[in-house]
């Protein structure tokens, strides 16, 4: 089983600052099958990034993804008030078919 | 706009059974690969089950294998999750989710339905 470990668990930043979220895999993951999601309270998750670095439709360009093999990063260049939420990475492959990281909570400092 | 709407949630006793439904609007459902994902209160996301567009291929997480069954009826644009031998740890919001057939990311989510397993 591929385990995804996200860090930090909680990130406290102010609007306008840069956020860097990490997702580390227990074994190599194809970039093709690494995605990031944003979830706000009471809502379903929303796809942000797929293929490690491709933005989903309608996602602002302040969101970017990078990385390969076992280390992936989601960067939010300048935080807007609506960006404070929980972020999950997800990978496809192996057994189980999909796994998620445990999430990073991005909170307002 | 394609939408997914889950139903069937509620309170069920430990050891009981329940069937969740997901109604898909839009014309693409018969060619969509579908999944169920859940989220326990205050916890993260857990993928549970996958079904191919034709319904012939299914995969399950170990935590639900043998207890849950995913199925679909493309004529009714509906996805189902049959759950049995329910446990307290199955308490969660259950999401119906579409995955992209090539990249396998989850691009369409329902609003979720809450299952509470308690006596």
Largest sheet of chain A: 7 strands, mixed
Distance between termini of chain A? 35 Å
Helix/strand order of chain B, N-terminal first: EEEEEEEEEEE
Mean pLDDT figure of chain A: 96
Number of helices of chain B: 0
Provide a count of the helices of chain A: 0
SS elements, strand count of chain B: 11
- Structural class assignment of chain A: mainly beta
Order of helices and strands of chain A: EEEEEEEEEE
Q: What is the approximate shape of chain A? A: globular
Note the main sheet of chain B: 7 strands, mixed
Mean pLDDT of chain B: 95
Instruction: Flag low-confidence runs of chain B.
Output: none
Q: What is the overall shape of chain B? A: globular
Describe the structure.
The complex is a heterodimer of chains A (109) and B (119). In chain A, the strands form two sheets. In chain A, strands 2, 4, 5, 6, 8, 9 and 10 form a seven-stranded mixed β-sheet that branches. Chain A has strands spanning 4-7, 10-13, 19-29, 34-39, 46-50, 54-55, 63-76, 86-92, 98-100, 104-108. Chain A contains no helices and ten strands. With 109 residues, chain A is mostly beta strands. In chain B, 0% of the residues lie in helices and 52% in strands. Chain B is built from no helices and eleven strands. By secondary structure, chain B is mainly β. Chain B starts with a strand and ends with a strand. Chain B is globular. In chain B, a hairpin with a 4-residue loop joins strand 7 (68-73) and strand 8 (78-83). The mean pLDDT of chain B is 95. Classes of the chains: A mainly beta (109), B mainly beta (119).
Task: Please specify the SSE layout and strand pairing.
The complex is a heterodimer of chains A (109) and B (119).
Chain A: E1 4-7, E2 10-13, E3 19-29, E4 34-39, E5 46-50, E6 54-55, E7 63-76, E8 86-92, E9 98-100, E10 104-108
Parallel strand pairs in A: 2-10
Antiparallel strand pairs in A: 1-3, 3-7, 4-5, 4-8, 5-6, 8-9, 8-10
Chain B: E1 3-7, E2 10-12, E3 18-25, E4 33-39, E5 45-51, E6 58-60, E7 68-73, E8 78-83, E9 92-99, E10 106-109, E11 113-117
Parallel strand pairs in B: 2-11
Antiparallel strand pairs in B: 1-3, 3-8, 4-5, 4-9, 5-6, 7-8, 9-10, 9-11
């Amino acid at each position: 089983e591929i385990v995804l470990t996200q860090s930090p668990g909680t990130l406290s930043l102010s609007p306008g600052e840069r956020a860097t979220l990490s997702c580390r895999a227990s074994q190599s993951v194809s970039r093709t099958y690494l995605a990031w999601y944003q979830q706000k309270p009471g809502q379903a998750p929303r796809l942000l990034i797929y293929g490690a670095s491709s933005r989903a439709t309608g996602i602002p360009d302040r969101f970017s993804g990078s990385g390969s093999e076992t280390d992936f990063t989601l960067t939010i260049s300048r935080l807007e008030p609506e960006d404070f939420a929980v972020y999950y990475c997800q990978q496809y492959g192996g057994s189980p078919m999909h796994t998620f990281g445990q999430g990073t909570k991005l909170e307002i400092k | 706009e394609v939408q997914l709407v889950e139903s069937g949630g509620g309170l069920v006793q430990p050891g009981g059974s329940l069937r969740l439904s997901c109604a898909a609007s839009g014309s693409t459902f018969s060619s969509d690969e579908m999944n169920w994902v859940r989220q326990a209160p205050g916890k993260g996301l857990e993928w549970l089950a996958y079904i191919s567009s034709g319904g012939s291929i299914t995969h399950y997480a170990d935590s639900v294998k043998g207890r849950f069954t995913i199925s679909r009826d493309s004529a009714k644009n509906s996805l189902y999750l049959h759950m049995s031998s329910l446990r307290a740890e199955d308490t969660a919001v259950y999401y119906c989710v579409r995955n992209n057939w090539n990249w396998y990311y989850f691009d369409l989510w329902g609003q979720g339905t809450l299952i509470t397993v308690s006596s």
